[in-house]
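During the no-cost extension, the postdoctoral fellow (Dr. R.K.) reprocessed legacy sequence entries with the updated structure-token encoder. One reprocessed record is reproduced below for audit purposes.
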Amino acid sequence: MKISLLSSLFLFATLAASAEKPNFIVVFTDDHGWPDLEYNEIYDDLRAPHINELAASGAICTNGYSTAPQCIPSRGGLLTGKFQNRFGLESNGLPLDGFNAEKTIAERLKTAGYTTGQIGKWHLGPAAEITNHGFDDVFAKNSNRPGWANFDLEGNATEGGLERSGLYHLDACSAAATAFIDRHAKKPFFLYLAYRAPHVPLDAPKKYLDRFPGEMPERRRQALAMISAMDDGVGAIRKKLQEHGLEENTLIWFIGDNGAPLKIHKDDAPGGGPGWDGSLNEPMNGEKGMLSEGGIRVPFFVAWKGKIPAGKVYEEPVIALDVAATAVELAGLEADDSLDGVNLVPFLTGEKTGAPHEFLTWRWVSQAAIRSGKWKLLRGGEREYLFDLEVDVSEKTNVLAENPEVANRLRKQLTNWSNELKPPGLSTGEMSQTWKNYFDFYLDGKPAPPLPETRPQGKKADPELQGWFVRNAGLFPKPDGFMFVPKRGPKGRNHMIINGISLDNVAGARIDLQTQRGQAGKVGFAWRLKGEKDFQPANVKESDIAETKEFQKVNLPFEPGGEIIHLRLLLPGGTTTIRAIEFFDGEGEAVKKWRFGKNE
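Re-encoded structure tokens follow.
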């Protein structure tokens, strides 16, 4: 009897302690521009009522920042609660050894009795290794290909492996989030839900695209549709929390990983691949890859029903690093001075006044920045700028010369901070031409560089390719041309791509090619005309090729019906070497020639 009573008392105490620990949900969006939420009331084409309602139920942080203008470092900073530069994760493409040695929020919270879950985009190593970073439940999916999961959408634990839900990836992530809540509603949990949206490739299905009819750039329509898909997920999560009576015990963060990539021109290129993702940053200046406001000021709000006042607009600068520090303190863990954030909740409730941070700092390759109050010092290579963000949120007026004392103070603070990093210093590399162009245009007011004649479609541009690209294949230089080698199991027809061209008065084409095995087949073109939003089924011309291992010239007479601006060279199956492509007019004169290799 005594043992039973003691057991009951222990169980009651355990349950009471668990009830006092809030749940945490972090919704992390991808390449999502600061103004692209309805509550900002900047653009009227958005339709995200559930996100809007959630934001209105808590505190909107108008000066919320990411830790980097790029995906991998910003995620490393968020999940560790430390500046990722401290452990060598400066930018994409660097080794993950430093991150792998750090404790994540999930690892910390597990020591406080939390169940932890990761859903969506990981981008910090192999999906099968996510559980090594403190996550119990994993549903890693960021595309319409199978992801990796150890639980299913019915809430059942599974052996880790490929998930094959068949759902649109954003819908699958939302369904996984509600399944996770069902699985763990009776004990404290931490859920990291990282949607890959509106990041390219733009891939919204028709049901979301149909919500945005009317004239607009197609890439904008895709971005709005993907945001709308996330919105449905946020609505489903809130409904699930209400079903379990958890709204008042769940703190929800909604944060972007960095600003939108505009590529300066906001080119409405077809296909949804690399380039502008359709999201917008204005009135913030700049874009992804810059430490200007357009690159690092992001959507940022915090909701906790009954704890954080609804409708609060919080204007002090805050940063994604604050997530870890807040969670650690609210979970009852010992404070950790190595964390770079602060517990924001007392500031959002009004219990504490003043700014949570004396200053915020950033370093990304050749750029560094510091914000203190209204002042922001920004460095890019040898260039330096000082902005008064209180009156110049668009960073258009450099007031460095008029405020030398402010600049000196900020420069000293930024330098001292940067010397703590790995490696130390205000930069880790030279400015590339891309970032020089961005600083020229956005910060120095110079004319935009011309839109490249060709648009990358998945591989780095090679000048010897003269603008041609491929997907699901490789292109390799040879003395007698370029060899096209498809990957195993390619989806769709083998083809090469060129965009941003202008071919008018075309009456036909010639292709000089060789098939590796000498097999017969077909070769031809598909094209998009100026004024057309996408390729039309009728815009295709093909011809048979002979069964020979020798080079052969194939003539294709055709009239495209207008100015060609986007072209696909349709190839036979297997490895093919292309020696030359030529378009000619009605008189037989060349309109455009491409010759590859050393042949003439």
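Residues 218-243 form the longest helix (26 residues). The chain has three domains: 25-357, 364-443, 463-595. The remaining legacy entries will be reprocessed before the final report is submitted.
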